[in-house]
Write a structure and sequence with these properties.
- The complex is a heterotrimer of chains A (about 270), B (about 280) and C (about 280).
- Chain A is mainly alpha-helical and about 270 residues long.
- In chain A, about 70% of the residues lie in helices and about 5% in strands.
- In chain A, strands 1-2 form a two-stranded antiparallel sheet.
- In chain A, helix 3 (about 40-60) packs parallel to helix 6, helix 3 runs antiparallel to helix 11 (about 245-265) and helix 8 crosses helix 10.
- In chain B, helix 4 (about 115-130) crosses helix 5 (about 145-160).
- In chain B, helix 6 (about 175-195) links the parallel strand 7 (about 165-170) and strand 8.
- Chain B has a single domain (about 1-245), classed as Rossmann fold.
- Chain B has a six-stranded mixed β-sheet, sandwiched between helices.
- Chain C has helices at about 50-60, 85-90, 105-115, 120-135, 150-160, 180-195, 230-235, 240-245, 250-260, 270-280; strands spanning about 5-15, 20-35, 40-45, 65-70, 75, 90-95, 170, 200-205, 215-220, 225-230.
- In chain C, a hairpin with a 2-residue loop joins strand 4 (about 65-70) and strand 5 (about 75).
- The termini of chain C are far apart.
- In chain C, about 55% of the residues are buried.
- The chains are: A mainly alpha (about 270), B alpha/beta (about 280), C alpha/beta (about 280).
- Chains in contact: A-B, A-C, B-C.
- The interface of A and B includes residues 176, 182, 185, 201 and 206 of A.
Chain lengths: ~270, ~280, ~280
Amino acid sequence: MIRDITLGQYYQADSVIHRLDPRVKLVATIGFIISLFVVDSWVGYVVAALFLACMIKLSKVPFRYMVKGMRAIVFILMITVVFNLFLTPGEPLVTVWKLTITKQGLRTAVMMAVRLSFLIVGSSLMTLTTTPNSLTDGMEKLMKPLKYVKVPVHEIAMMMSIALRFIPILLEETDKIMKAQIARGADFESGNLIKKAKAMVPLLVPLFISAFRRANDLAMAMEARCYRGGEHRTKMKPLCYHAADRIAYCVLLVYFAGCVAIRIFF
Amino acid sequence: MSLILDHVNYVYGEDTALAVHALKDVNLVIPDGQFIGLIGHTGSGKSTLVQHLNGLMKPTSGAVYFNGEDIHEKDYDKKQLRSKVGLVFQYPEHQLFEIDVFKDVCFGPKNLGLSQKEVELRAYAALKQVGLEDEYFYQSPFDLSGGQKRRVAIAGVLAMKPDILVLDEPTAGLDPKGRDEILDQIAKLKEETGITVILVSHSMEDVAKYVERIIVMNQGSVLYDDVPREVFKHYKELEQVGLAAPQVTYIMQALKKRGMPVDTAVTTIAEAKQEILRVLHR
Amino acid sequence: MGIIKTDKLTFEYIRRDEEGNVEGITRAVDEVDLDIRQGDFIAILGHNGSGKSTLAKHINAILYPTEGTVWVDGMDTQDEAHLWDIRQEAGMVFQNPDNQIIGQMVEEDVGFGPENMGVPTKEIWERVEESLKAVGMYEFRKHSPNKLSGGQKQRVSIAGVIAMHPKCIILDEPTAMLDPNGRKEVIRAVRALNDVEGITVVLITHYMEEIIHADQVFVMDQGHIAMEGTPREIFSRVDELKELRLDVPQVTLLAHELREKGVDLPEGILTIEEFVEALDRCR
């Protein structure tokens, strides 16, 4: 059920991309997303596609595996396309009943679809090649300047990494409680929305209780192991840039400059 | 009235590279009124098997028949089945959710669409069957002790008046006395109502005292299915699959080795005591 | 003074009803005096609710006594200046294997303690390696904890404590949620720590077969220590143990019951070999 969603779950492989510093990948992903909105010509999209394709190739993540995890997103993609297709005013191309497809509509729809799917593939490439832990590490380090404006950067990163650790455990627990209640004759499927919502009570109450109990236990275990926030802490896996990371930044810069150039000249 | 598993296979993640064959050609007949121990270590397939008994899981191949009917037929009433084959999961107290004990126990029978009066009668009877005193009925289930919570959870399944009661590790996490109390209560219940009980455990010592039949699971298949004394004869094979016979089996084996003419097939302390006394006073 | 010492340790908590009014006071730990020598293997037995876990949490300064004092290596746990030293010296392993692993990779979890203590990066790696080797989990260092068995998870938790280089380690029912194989794995790892590394062990449990190798056993009931002695001394008192909601290994029980029937067996038999020897002499 819920566990089938593989969108962006870490894919173990040994590749240049996997070994890059998470900060590079974070910055690159943001850069790539911005670039998608910078370019607005076909040439630009071809360049973006090439760039993305190279990265996927380098990452050694099978393309089929990436696409498989995207099924859940297809629905959102379709909605966007349909809305753009029919609701953009302009020069009519085809009219079916009351719906009109315009030339501009077609153009925006296709562009939107391309942008969105590039965006999703691009960002899932980051999560596919970076463990959640190094991702949070990268974020913590990148956001460090925010500490001076009183943003609890370390705490946010710690919360994220704990959440990531407990998601599979809580999913399993949900499955277990659900089965146990079904064994007591509960019905989670039939009935209208209100009835369905009511049927969730026997699932949610035990789940919340369990989550709180786990949180309590975990807090105690962390304190017992001398956890006292981000101060005084050293890192087992400190982040530091290597030659490959610097090269990656250069590549990114060239790509981004190219995109800007395309925007200006095409 | 019986439950039959006919060539049941179950494979997790069938189409993937990580497919796990959790049940391999399991054939079992569970007749009325038996007290059965289902033993196996973690990952032996016993939990998967248990979920096949009330239709929570569907076999990849093979069939499950309850009273002669295939439970995965299209029009089969699964809800009715689940009331007849009551399943108490491991740590069942983790599913309690109502504001008081009595309401929680009512949940099962209420789902069966019974009248309010019948629901309450059943809940009351079930709470009595697990030996919970009246004073706790209107307390929040979360204020009870571990052992009491577990009783409430078991009552929640009993209130559906099952013909077969399956308990997955009902003593996990309890202290020795709490463990004995729960098992004694189940044995008493079995005695009084004649219900079929399937006790899932990884401890031979716990079940040896109570059950009349032991099913040993290993790597998804049924390794042994016999009366306890026959199963424990295979204590060496049991060790190889990560299980062990009760300590009393080893004691008797050691005595025999020493040249004492004892019957090594005894399964409980009481039997061992009689046997040793017999040999000593001969 | 031993590594852990308590003097009239008492812990009370206030029970409140739903409106927050005081309903009563429960004494979870009642005037407990302990003095544990460095390097010993101590077992604390007791039924659920006997106060043994509450007692354990005092040693790690997670709870503070209502009355009395707890010293860990000479440091008073109520002295805030020593809080982190105490938590480093007296490591703690809890019951639920899932709720105490913080890292998403085995080695990262083991490194969590040293990270908090501010150990330099290079040394963290050395400590992680030696601790994982000590519990036999080194080959799993790159695994996700979610994929491990219960016994393996508990061994990772133990490694996480050893990496902090504690003088003693308190295990609060580490095997209660495990299957028999997992239990054996964990107890083996704990015994190795005590034998090889000389770490003081305080094992809290209600499984009697786990305490056979302890140097000293305390049995708790209603917050105070009801029995105290070597495993053999404790196991000689079968009837008392039963009253305290505990049991004894089958071999001890069988010997006890035969003795009641007039068979001349000594009390406190712990192993099958002893039983066979003793019974052989009765013939």
